[in-house]
Specification:
Length: 298
């Protein structure tokens, strides 16, 4: 009787040890075109979901307000995030994949503003809008600039246009997205820097206390390389370039130039950026006239 009970316990323990996670509950903020709710631009989430599906892991991402991400990740309520930057606080709790994208943040200012700075230290005394809860790294703490935390990137843009801040920092792909879909307003109201002032790598991260967290990350990393080889990576990120250390050699790979598939407006997502423009102190009739002129010219 004791022998059979022991065997049963061993069988249960073995099953528990070999069981694999097949569903991940992930969390993210809305950061188009990288992350968003289903049906909206969410290229990073699409990529990670595809990679996880190749290893038999389904994932569902809950979109939360900016400023809540880190606390929710560290609370254990979710299993991780499909698109997150790394910092020391998060590293204590989360296991990170290899980076699958490099976010290059450039300076955005009002039209006529000097955006030629090549380092944050050149902006000492300036007020720069950044989003609350984003892990920008330690560089901003020693730059001498004043960083104003905002609710969202749209809020950062609105505060910039209202004159509350001098600049904001935005990923160059997000900038391209705005320029392609709001060309006239971007051209007449904004100036963009050309030198990335901050570079952050984007990761899949899951809780270390998940039973097979290390296995999931290792298998996902392998699928990243496969997805690059078969161009699934390029198709899902809507680009024909790579700027991430996807082979683990410590260097960011680069292929070709960006392919502007972001030219295609995508449903309601444009509304948020339009609201950022129109919600600022500007003559709406003037903006509408500019849009009509752009339509005629286009």
């Amino acid at each position: 009787m004791r022998a059979s009970s022991l065997l049963l316990c061993l069988a249960i323990a073995t099953t528990a040890m070999t069981a694999q996670t097949t569903q991940l509950r992930l969390v993210s903020t809305a950061w188009p075109p990288f992350t968003n709710a289903a049906g909206q631009p969410r290229f990073a989430l699409d990529l990670v979901e595809a990679g996880l599906s190749r290893i038999g892991v389904k994932s569902e991402t809950t979109i939360v307000d900016d400023g809540q991400l880190t606390s929710l990740l560290l609370s254990g309520k979710f299993d991780g995030s499909a698109a997150v930057w790394k910092d020391a606080e998060r590293e204590r709790t989360l296991l990170f994949s290899q980076p699958y994208l490099e976010n290059r943040l450039i300076l955005v200012g009002r039209r006529g503003t000097d955006v030629s700075a090549t380092a944050l230290s050149s902006l000492k005394g300036k007020r720069i809008a950044i989003v609350e809860g984003y892990a920008y790294g330690e560089t901003i703490d020693t730059s001498g600039a004043t960083f104003v935390r905002t609710k969202t990137e749209e809020d950062s843009l609105k505060q910039l246009l209202d004159g509350t801040v001098d600049y904001t920092l935005m990923d160059e792909l997000v900038v391209q997205y705005i320029v392609n879909n709001h060309a006239e307003q971007a051209r007449t109201r904004l100036d963009f820097g050309s030198t990335p002032l901050l570079t952050r790598q984007l990761y899949l991260a899951i809780r270390k206390d998940l039973p097979d967290a290390e296995s999931i990350i290792t298998r996902f990393n392998a699928q990243l390389r496969s997805m690059i080889a078969d161009h699934t990576y390029h198709r899902l990120l809507h680009v024909s370039f790579i700027r991430a250390d996807v082979d683990g050699d410590g260097l960011a790979e680069l292929e070709q130039k960006i392919r502007a598939l972001l030219l295609v407006p995508i449903n309601n997502e444009l509304g948020a950026w339009r609201d950022a423009f129109l919600g600022s102190s500007v003559d709406e009739e003037e903006v509408a006239a500019a849009e009509r002129a752009a339509e005629v010219g286009g």
